[in-house]
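From the methods appendix. Each design record in this collection lists the tokenized structure first, followed by the designed amino acid sequence. Records were kept in a plain field format so they could be parsed without special tools. The example shown here is representative of the layout used throughout.

RECORD:
FOLD TOKENS (114 positions):
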């Protein structure tokens, strides 16, 4: 069983930055595929960024050049640095781990508004 706890969401003005963090349980964190998803009101959940155990990274096109995913295997954390935020980025951001099966955190709300 893997437990995931997100933090770092909040209200930010357009053009601003936020850093999300996800803390994971378990002794095999370095083997997990970790990802951030988001779900905006009335929209489907979408993959934002994913980092594999070997360090490979994927981003959805809409965040390339603005968001950076990183992991710290010593701390069992995965972060999402989000820059140049716009209202289109407003959503609940959810942490996901894949280790044989998929695990989800409860999410953290990011609101981009002036």
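DESIGN:
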């Amino acid at each position: 069983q893997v437990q995931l706890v997100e933090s770092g969401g909040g209200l930010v003005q357009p053009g601003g930055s936020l850093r999300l963090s996800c803390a994971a349980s378990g002794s095999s964190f370095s083997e997990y595929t970790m990802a951030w998803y988001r779900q905006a009101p009335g929209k489907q959940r979408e993959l934002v960024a994913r980092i594999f155990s070997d360090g490979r990274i994927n981003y959805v096109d809409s965040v390339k050049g603005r968001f950076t995913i990183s992991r710290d295997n010593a701390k069992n954390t995965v972060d999402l640095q989000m820059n140049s935020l716009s209202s289109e980025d407003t959503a609940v951001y959810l942490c996901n781990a894949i280790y044989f099966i998929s695990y989800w955190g409860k999410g953290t709300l990011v609101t981009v508004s002036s």
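APPENDIX NOTE: The chain has a mean pLDDT of 97.
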